[in-house]
Amino acid sequence: MAFYSRVSGSVGVITLQNPPVNALSAAVRQGIVDTMHRALSEPEVKSVVICGQNGKFCGGADIREFGANMRGPPLVPMIHLIEAAEKPVVAAIEGVALGGGLELALGCHYRIAHSKARLGLPEVTLGLLPGAGGTQRLPRLIGVPAALELITTGRHATAAEALQLGIVDEVTDHSAVDAAVKFAQSVAGKSLDARRISTYPRPRSPDLAEIFEKAMKEVRRSARGAIAPVTCVQAVHASVTLPYAKGMERERELFSTLFTSGQAHALQYYFFAQRAVSRWSTPSGARWDTSKPRPVHKAAVIGLGTMGRGISVSLAQAGLSVVAVETQEKQLLEAKQAVSGMLERSAKRRGVPLADDKIKYNCSVQAVADADLVIEAVFEDMALKKTIFQQLSGICKPGTLLCTNTSGLDIDELASQTQSPELVVGMHFFAPAHVMKLLEVVYGPRSSPEALATAMEMGKKMGKVSVAVGNCRGFVGNRMLKPYLEQAFFLLEEGATPEQVDQVLEEFGFAMGVFKVSDLSGLDVGWKVRKADGLVVPGSTGKSARIRGGSRYSPLGDLLCEQGRFGQKTGRGWYQYDKPGGRVAKPDPWLHGFLEEYRARHGLVARRIDHQEMLERCLYALINEGFQILQDGIAAGPEDIDVIYVLGYGWPRHRGGPMFYAGLVGLDKVLERLEHYHQVYPDVLGLKPCSLIRKLAASSSPPIHRWREFIQKPRSQL
Ligand SMILES: CC(C)(COP(=O)(O)OP(=O)(O)OC[C@H]1O[C@@H](n2cnc3c(N)ncnc32)[C@H](O)[C@@H]1OP(=O)(O)O)[C@@H](O)C(=O)NCCC(=O)NCCSC(=O)/C=C/CCCCCCCCCCCCC(=O)O
């Protein structure tokens, strides 16, 4: 709702009230309309201020109310009522003015912002466009290039930038409401003719055609199949080709096409999913709201390779004192230099103070003795990690949380090396660790709720989205990757090329296809794991070369590694590069010949595989594993898996994540295709539909927020 008060006798103040972000719910919109009428009808009131309760102007339309039965006064006429008022209306912007919130402010005659406020039109990130006049007013106010940039990226501008662009009229370091009231008094009775943005002339410039062409090209390149950015450009285009009223009709038309789209549903689902994962729970009933994190002031990182360096940077930037340990002096010096450079670049980019003095470097593990939390980030080698955990257990003060940065090793095995296994958790960072937003926080069967809460909180402090997951091989992300990769290899055996598989996945929206990713991260990484698992049998021939443990196996990756083809770093992998370390992937005729020779050797007849089959086999195998993970209680809900896949594995955000995508395709359809492929390839375990997807499909495929009801509680993990 919105409440009304009178200040200094002549200023009507309308305060939006809908915690936590004063979103424009039906009740708020109704409140604004009612209080506006009241302010306009009171003769003593000469001007009006609109503000938000608790230092937040407005977070935009209430996303939770989007749906079929929307009630209350619509936003567009409400904003027109404000703009048409004969008394000056001033927006007092504190906290945020986002989406419909900024559009409301643009309908006011003046805007005063607090210096810490952020303003933007982030609708594009929800699969929408600013459909309450934003695409027509903003370009009229600040010109097409700046409006296009803000609307197509959805980024938030600072108050200083908003002032520079002309979005706000004044910025204050004090109360924006007080400043707005004062301002409102000063403009009472003045003509408003030049203050109604909708009456401004259409933006004109000789190079507009070129600007739009460039913007369209850029959004098509970066959107990876997302439709909202393209539609945003079309809507802004209407502001230069059509008069305001017609432009608004066009905006409405384009908004309607987006509003009901699967992509908008996916992006809005994802918005809430990303927030939901912080409310973690475990099969044993430990929960985010009943588990208290321990205070952490000092952290330590052991091992300053690529991951350890990135983790040290993240910790220092979060304001913690860090002890960074690397036992080899030469490596320590190299790491110190590299970390300083990373911190400097990052401080420059983010406009924050340099955090270099937060890190102390040391050659001895003893230096971590008084740390509250230690993150071990040495090579992915269980024996080495075990030795370090044994050492840490003896060195660290009681109560220190011991974390391992591993992408899939057994947390419980490491915990068993220590005297306090309840204080051991996994922190699976993604490379580069100071950039990537995702953190899988892995709890073992003995980790305490407090340890888990501390690691989750630590992730948040580092600006990560932390997802709590159970302990199993590969946790959530890498466990699901296995059947996906496996299918990609099988497709090569059956006749596809890496380019064809990658093209299908990139057309789906992945930033990179599976083979390009493999070249980037290094083929030797998986090879080492497979060797440790006893899967690599050099020189094996005949049928046994392609079977392991009764299941189909492709040795293609192993064979490439045996040739020294490790991907980008060696200049050769699934593709060729102009030099070791090169980044531009080019098809490699050698690889094609190698595949032909391999198929001939194994009696495989190449066939033409259509796009649909490539996509279904890769994605449905991955999704099937996701259902198995839910069934096993490794992830608490589908949102956890989706957030992991979007933030850690390049799954296109506008498709919501693998589990949301499965629901969108239809669980019965996914099940039917899995059954089909499993019938064709009975020796591929990853294609055998898991019982949870069967159960859900048999229960008329309930919506994704109800899936948890169908998961049998697995045995306690915590
Ligand atoms: C920056 C934030 C605002 C705050 O961040 P932070 O402090 O970190 O807090 P959070 O954890 O993110 O959020 C706190 C809780 O608040 C919830 N929240 C936040 N914003 C909203 C919101 N806008 N609506 C609802 N709930 C919101 C959030 O989920 C948290 O709760 P929980 O933890 O999940 O429980 C940050 O939150 C943020 O960035 N928010 C989003 C800002 C945003 O994107 N705003 C734009 C919203 S869309 C919009 O404004 C669109 C306007 C266009 C016109 C709309 C027209 C209406 C529809 C007309 C229908 C026409 C039908 C057409 C079809 C036909 O023709 O047939």
TrEMBL record:
Pathway(s) where this gene product acts: Lipid metabolism; fatty acid beta-oxidation
Cellular localization per UniProt: Peroxisome
The 3-hydroxyacyl-CoA dehydrogenase NAD binding domain, residue ranges: 298-471
Keyword Transferase: no
EC numbers, comma separated: 1.1.1.35, 4.2.1.17, 5.3.3.8
Keywords, sorted A to Z: Fatty acid metabolism, Isomerase, Lipid metabolism, Lyase, Multifunctional enzyme, NAD, Oxidoreductase, Peroxisome
Sequence ranges assigned to domain 3-hydroxyacyl-CoA dehydrogenase C-terminal in this UniProt record: 474-577, 615-699
InterPro entries named among the record's database cross-references: 3-OHacyl-CoA_DH_CS, 3-OHacyl-CoA_DH_NAD-bd, 3HC_DH_C, 6-PGluconate_DH-like_C_sf, ClpP/crotonase-like_dom_sf, Enoyl-CoA_hyd/isom_CS, Enoyl-CoA_hydra/iso, NAD(P)-bd_dom_sf
Catalysed transformations (reactions): a (3Z)-enoyl-CoA = a 4-saturated (2E)-enoyl-CoA; a (3S)-3-hydroxyacyl-CoA + NAD(+) = a 3-oxoacyl-CoA + NADH + H(+); (3E,5Z)-octadienoyl-CoA = (2E,5Z)-octadienoyl-CoA; (3E,5Z)-tetradecadienoyl-CoA = (2E,5Z)-tetradecadienoyl-CoA
Pfam families given in the database record: 3HCDH (PF00725), 3HCDH_N (PF02737), ECH_1 (PF00378)
Gene3D superfamilies: 1.10.1040.50, 2-enoyl-CoA Hydratase, Chain A, domain 1, NAD(P)-binding Rossmann-like Domain
Main localization, broad class: other
Subunit field text: Monomer.
Family of this protein: In the C-terminal section; belongs to the 3-hydroxyacyl-CoA dehydrogenase family. Belongs to the enoyl-CoA hydratase/isomerase family.
Protein name per UniProt: Peroxisomal bifunctional enzyme
